[in-house]
Each structure stands twice: as structure tokens, then as C-alpha cells.
């Protein structure tokens, strides 16, 4: 049994085979992935998971990407398209961060271009036997109620380079020729190894295991607090009538009582209330920070070292953001090519090239420096607290890359310097 199989039993996120017709062994290519539906359930319930995923997606798309193309008309069309579909990109980036995989389907319908995200659990890929990155077929599954009786109907689409086939309850409903001879489904796969078909996101098995440990330690500590705040009285007496009366008393309402001279009472309460709990919480917290490559101050300042240099904490998420943006660039170039082909086929455009470049812009450093310095001066003068200053610059943090020197100053020290 592989170590990942042992881990998944512990953390409760099973790995699922997206192509059940292929038997996977340790020597063969890996077609498995963490269960997207289980991860979605975790995302809805766990604040740590939700924060990591949302931060990651917002960093990747902190600004709308820009398209460069030798054909000026194509360039204008694509940049407008990105403006109109930025919410879809952010949604798919969120799903990619959560599950490691994001999918965008690009089709042309009677209403025009249709660009939509498809949740990973709905997609199954059949790759070429010679190259995992060359997809032979992409299947998309749905189950939906149709008609007045709300009967559940299963829908399936099979996209190949030659045709689109649509099934209803496993019976062919229609077949269409694929006019662009490319599979119109983009696959954004994060952290994918060379022998893996699917990627892995920010919520890996190790990250989730530490999140569960953090919650378990925190819940145990809270229970200790409750027990400490309401200790259990233990009475010792030979007077049976007295003991019977004591059992009837509501100790929440009655704070005081009188015993006979033969009786004694002790309180049953926990010792070592916080012994080791803080250290364990810190350990789990920093494991989550390191493994997810997320700055601790963005997850919520609750550890003393969170006042450390913001710039130093940014390096991991900056590297991760650039890594993810490079993955997006390649898939967005494919999206551009699909869009331009569809527009030529159905709207009469003629473009000189399908080749494009995609860049994620950064704000101008000099303007950003002035803004940060202004916030810093407000903090130093006491108009803003340090926490308020952090909140003010947080929306701009994705653009504070290595070239920007950000110095943090303690407001008390600055106040002392001003007095002198």
C-alpha cells in the first residue's frame, strides 16, 4: 500500500480514479486525484481551507491579464473578452487551488461565444497512450432534473478533435463535427508531476492533516477551559440524607451551600490547562503556513511573530503565484486560439495570426511605494493602528514583489523619535 493510501484513510479525503477502465499500478502513470467533491465539502466548512484557497486565487488574478498580438483587432477583442470573463477565471483559479485542477470549456452557441468553468468532479480525461499531455477525449458529466416531474437525467458530453457527442441517459442525443479540430476544454493543472494526469492544489493531504490536527487541539483546549470554568464538586460525607439533598441542587443557580461539620467537599478540575497546547497549535499553524505557501499575516494575525517583516513573508506566495500564473499563461494562449478560430468560422473575422502572448501586469512600483509610505506615516503618527495599516495595503500585496523594499516600523519607536 502506498503512503498516500495510508494518509487518505487518516484524513478522510479519498483518491478517486477518473478513468476506471485503466488499471493503475505503482509503475504506471498516475491517473488519480483527491476527491473534488470531498474537497468542496471541506472548503464550505473549514475557514483555514477557505482562506488559503481564496487568497491563492486572488493573488493569481490580482490584475486582469493583458494579451499581446501582432493582429491589433484580435488583441482588442481578446482583452475585452478577458474583462468580461474575469469572474470565470477567478472561479476556476479557486477550484484549481482547492483541487489542483481547473477546467474551462469554450464553445460557440446560438448566443455567441460560451466560456464557462466546469467543476473538476464533472470531468474525466482519456489521454494519448504516448503522451499524458495530449488528450484524446475529454468527458463531461452532469446529472440534472428535467421536466415537470423533476426526474434525474444523466448527461454526458464527449469532446474529441473530430467531433462532439452528446448523450442523455447513455443514449446518443446528437453528434456534431468539431469545426476547429481542437478539444475546446482547457485544463489548468497545478503542481503536476511528469507522470501524473491530474494536478494537486494548495489543500494537499499534508496541509489538510495539519488543519485537522489544529482543530482537534483547539477543540480539546476549549473543552478544558469549559471544565475549568465549571469545576465538578465532589462531596464526602457519611450523612446519606445530606447526600440525597445535595443531588437535588441545581449547582448552576446555587453558588453557595452549607454542609454539616462531618462533610467535606473538593473540586474536580483539570490540571496543566494549557500545558503544551500553545506549542502544538503553533507547530500545526506554521506547518499549514509553510506547506500552503501562504503568509501567516494573511491568515489572521494571532501569533506574536506575525509582526515580522511583511516582505520576507511574501516570498513563498510570490513564488507560488508566479508558478501558477505561468500555468495559466499557457492555457490562456490556447483559449485565445480557440476564440479566434470560432470568430473566424461564425462571425466572419479574418485574423493574420492566432499567436498571442499573455502577461499578468504589475502596478507601477513608484506609485505603490508612495502609497505604502503614506500608510506607514499614518501608522507612525498614530492616526492608524498597525493592524489598520496592514488592512490598507493588503489589496496591493500581490504586486509587492521582490523589487519592492517594504520596511515596517513600530509606531511607538517612531513616536519616540519624533519627540526627540
Mean pLDDT score, rounded?
77
Distance between the termini: 68 Å
Largest beta-sheet details: 5 strands, antiparallel
- Report the β-strand fraction as a percent range: 15-25%
Spatial order of the strands forming the largest sheet: 6-7-8-9-10
N to C succession of SSEs: HEEHHEHHEEEEEEEEHEHEHHHEHHH
pLDDT below 50 for ≥5 consecutive residues: which ranges?
6-11, 301-308, 401-420
Secondary structure class reads alpha+beta
Number of strands: 14
Count of helices? Answer: 13
Residue share in helix: 40-55%
Computed Rg = 29 Å
What's the shape?
A: extended
Structure description:
The protein has 420 residues and is α+β, with helices and mostly antiparallel strands. Helices cover 44% and strands 21% of the residues. The protein contains 13 helices and 14 strands. The chain has helices at residues 3-11, 36-45, 47-60, 72-84, 86-99, 205-229, 240-248, 277-292, 296-299, 310-347, 365-380, 386-393, 411-419; strands at 15-17, 32-34, 66-68, 101-109, 112-118, 123-128, 131-146, 151-159, 163-168, 171-177, 185-189, 232-236, 264-268, 357-359. The strands form 5 sheets. A 5-stranded antiparallel sheet has the order 6-7-8-9-10, with no helix packed on it. A 3-stranded antiparallel sheet has the order 5-4-11. Helix 3 (47-60) packs across helix 5 (86-99) and helix 6 (205-229) packs antiparallel against helix 8. The longest helix has 38 residues, at 310-347. The radius of gyration is 29 Å and the shape is extended. The N and C termini lie far apart (68 Å). Residues 6-11, 301-308 and 401-420 have low confidence and may be disordered.
